[in-house]
Amino acid sequence: MDAPGLSLIISFYNKLDNLRLILASLELQSFS
User: Fold this and answer.
1) Would you state the pLDDT for residue 2?
2) R_g of the chain computed on alpha carbons
3) pLDDT tens-digit profile, the chain (32 residues)
């Protein structure tokens, strides 16, 4: 069973996680 949409969703969530990490590190830098 091949689900091409699933890999798109997974990569989308990976990008969201990366954005959250970047935003969190930027907030830490601005607070310090």
Assistant:
1) 64
2) 14
3) 567 899 999 999 999 999 999 999 999 998 76
The Cα–Cα gap between 1 and 26 comes to 41
Q: What ranges in 1-32 are assigned the alpha helix state H? A: 4-31
Tell me the one-letter amino acid at 12: F
19's tokens: 């954005």
Q: Which of 1, 17, 5 minimizes the C-alpha distance to 25?
A: 17
Torsion of Cα atoms, 8 then 9 then 13 then 19, to 10°? 50
Place of tokens 């907030």: 27
